[in-house]
Structure formats: C-alpha cells, structure tokens
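Methods — Computational structure assignment.
A single polypeptide chain was analysed. Its primary sequence is given first, followed by the predicted tertiary structure written as structure tokens.
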Amino acid sequence: MSNYTMHHAQDYGRRHMYKSEDGRLTVEVIATEHDERDAHCLPRIWQRRGFIDRFMPTTLYTEAYFTDEGGNQWGMFNPCELKLPGRRTINFSRIYEATPENERALVAEAAAMYRDGVRCYESGSWTPCEITSECLA
C-alpha cells in the first residue's frame, strides 16, 4: 500500500466508481435525488427527526470495498457509515449534497481511511486497526 491516489474508473450516470492505484480499494459514489414534496422521502424524515439540519434535494452515499489477498471484498472503509455497538448505521455528519466537490471529499476520506487502517467510524472518531484477519472478522 504505497500509493493511495484514487482514479476515476467508471461512470454509470449517477454512480461513479473510483479505484486506488494498488487496485485494492474501490469506492462507489451514488447520487440520489429526492422529492421535496414527499413527506416520506428519507432526507425529509431525517430532518424531522433532527439527524440533519435541512432538507437536501440530492444526497451522496458511498460504498467502499477493500479486496484482501485472497480476492475477498470487505465493505469496511466507508465514511458514510458509523459503527455502533452491535450494528452499523448512517453517519449523518457525512451525508452531503450531491456536488462534485462533496463527491471528491467523500472519495478522499475513504482513501484516507484505507491509508490509515480506519475501519469505519466508532462513535464519530477514527479507530485505526491493522488490516488483519481479526480486523476483517
């Protein structure tokens, strides 16, 4: 893991794929549009419940996959997820409006988590860990 530069790999409309130079980290960024008039759309529910401060007509979400030496993929370097005791949930501090700048920020954050060995967030802070079979369990 000598270089952590992310390269734009594929475009799938509102989904963009990025890969690290070593090919072991893949980050998929998904842009979603929401109908402000729909009382049941997720950003409206999140706003009502106080998870976000304002309605966002578009949001970004990432899926980040690490490929180990055996070719297995693990979803563990995702800035949009928060690890809580016994479960994972949405990291609302990393739910951004869909802009190119925010997309670059999320990809850079996933790459930094990968570089630093951070396996999702624990209660809002980074918890470094070695990438071992114990960490992948």
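Note: The beta strands are 6-12, 15-20, 25-33, 58-67, 73-74, 81-84, 87-90, 118-122, 125-128.
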